[in-house]
Amino acid sequence: MEREAAFAFISENPELVKAWIEQNLLMKNEAMKITQQSSTAFGQAVDTGRIKSFVEFGDKRKTKWYLKADLLDYAKNKKKNSKQ
């Protein structure tokens, strides 16, 4: 899908976009529950690039949203790696 067509779809279907965001994007507190990490451990995983934000915005105070699928994958692999 071309960029212009994608933007047109989004503009014409805000309820679908909202539903997708609500089902797939999480803020830090929700993300920490999935990864079962403390704030410090989660921050370290972000700082080292093991967890990446899907989108971030804001200049002075950044807001980051994380993709739920990425967090579930990270949590699954974190458990595997800790058993080795």
Report on the structure:
The structure is a single chain. The protein has helices at 3-12, 14-24, 28-35, 39-47, 68-83, and strands at residues 25-26, 55-57, 63-67. The chain has 84 residues and is mainly alpha-helical. The chain has one domain (25-83). Strands 1-3-2 form a 3-stranded antiparallel sheet. β2 and β3 (63-67) form a beta hairpin. The longest helix has 16 residues, at 68-83. It is elongated and about 45 Å long.
Condensed summary:
This protein has 84 residues and is mainly α.
Key structural traits:
84 residues, mainly alpha, 3-stranded antiparallel beta sheet, 5 helices
Shape: elongated
N-to-C series of helices and strands: HHEHHEEH
As a percent range, the share of strand residues is: 5-15%
> Widest sheet: strand order?
1-3-2
Calculate Rg over CA atoms.
15 Å
Number of domains: 1
Biggest beta-sheet profile? 3 strands, antiparallel
User: How far apart are the first and last residues' alpha carbons, in Å?
Assistant: 42 Å
Total strand segments = 3
Structural class: mainly alpha
Percent in helix: 55-70%
Average per-residue pLDDT, rounded, comes to 93
Question: How many DSSP H or I helices?
Answer: 5
